[in-house]
Structure formats: structure tokens, C-alpha cells
Amino acid sequence: MPKWLSNQIMNAFNKRDRRQIRLLNDCWFFYYSRRETNNEARQ
Question: Could you report the per-residue pLDDT of 5-18, keeping only the tens digit for each?
Fold first, then answer.
């Protein structure tokens, strides 16, 4: 997980900002799925 995303998620949890947590969670799954797709294409 990129450091900037990890920091954003920690801040959202500390502020108990559910909307931000959901948004960042969606960003992480999008980032992770794209990364996995690219790794499979390279092999």
C-alpha cells in the first residue's frame, strides 16, 4: 500500500470519517486490482 494512502486511511479512522474511509477503501481495491491485473499480464 502506498504510504500516502496509508496516511489518509489512518487520518480518516482517527477522525471517524466513514465517508472518507469508504472512499479510500474503494481506492485501495481499485489500485490493488489494477496492480494484480498488470502483474498477470507481464507473466
Answer: 899 999 999 999 99
In 3D space, the residue among 35, 38, 10, 36 whose CA is nearest the CA of residue 25 turns out to be 10
Give this prediction's pTM: 0.68
d(CA 26, CA 37): 16
Query: How far is CA 21 from each of CA 12, 26, 40, rounded to the nearest angstrom?
Result: 6, 9, 28
Q: Using DSSP, state whether 10 is helix, strand or coil.
A: helix
